[in-house]
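> tool_call: predict_assembly(chains=two)
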Amino acid sequence: MKDPRIPDPLSWSVFTQGIWRDNPVFVMLLGLCPLLAVTNTAMNALAMGLATTFVLVCSGTLVSLLQRVIPKQVRIAAYIIIIATFVTIVDYAIQAISLDLHKALGAFIQLIVVNCVILGRAEAYASKNPVVNAIVNAFGMGVGFTLALLSLGIVREIIGSGSLFGIDLFGAQFQPWAVFVLPPGGFFVLAFWLFVFSLMRKRKETRAKQEEVARAA
Amino acid sequence: MTETAPVPTASPSSLRLIATLAGIAIMSGLLVALAAEFTREPILKNRREALEKAVFTVLPEATARKNFLLNESGLTPLGDDAISEANCYAGYNESGELVGVAIEASARGYQDVVKILYGYNPHTNCILGFTVLQSSETPGLGDRVETDPDFLANFACLEATLNEAGTDLKNQIVTVKNGTKKHPWQIDAISGATVTSTAIGTALQKSTTKLLPLIHKVEPEFAQ
């Protein structure tokens, strides 16, 4: 994570930080509980990702606006109240949109409160940066988290139920591999994606090193 | 020599800490109240629609629904919005005749409590079907109770006749091992999902013993 003492100038990297360099799931390994629990279908994954993004952006905005008001002794309590407020709002909103979705996500909507990605962003970024940066950064983190959830949800739904966003892909003769929609499947698919990501990062690093050597020669 | 604990520099007074937290709490309360107010109507509408769908699934001939609260003291008609207070829902066909009563029941399944809604026809003494309202059974195994055609065939007309005195069922509803169903009041379990099948049976057995005698006692009051 970046040095917190120097405020970031608003740049493209404030946004992309959450998607690639500091992806909350694939790099920081945060928020794995909802990640493993609700990615059994792509729809659930998308809904969870959007709900988390909403909470991230709203709580980031408020924390950044109130950074001079909140004394540092009570900041964690204050952040938790702010986050819990927006989680409750999301909970109501999802119930209003679809009860089936609310049923599918179950307790994990309320558990967004304790998602460490959000508290981590409030503490490490929003409380030390101007409000526009905080919003952009939180939005980037939310997109990164949603993409991570989706990459698990899509794979698990295709293999485990033979469908994507509820649309049947293979027809009746397909025998779904049910373990992939069960909890163990979440671990398998997460391990696979972590492997792919670290392989890609390693490749990039090696290439950068080779270029440096070539330039020096 | 006395040593004092290091005092943090420029610590704000406790009053200020409390005031900040109180201020944030008030703001948060306001936001939550606003959200609750704005979403109350749509949430109620969703609940009503979900229940309506469930009632019409278990009472296929019904086209209208009425909420009732049924207990030892009798039958109390409730308003259309009193979904959470009601425990049974009467279904009527187009000519306004009672086609059945939908009742909620629950029992412990494999993972958690399975909550179902079942339809009962007091004229034919049949359980007409059920739908799962809430369950966290294993996908691909326990949740087959909703889709397995052989299991659902149990509910074409599951017998639930009262004894002569009208105090209890003549034959208790029971779930039996797959392929051993002999009587119309038995439920043939799904092999591989015995626990969930048994939970459905238990829920029906508990609920029918308690409520069917009451329903028969107050049946004329269901008429519109």
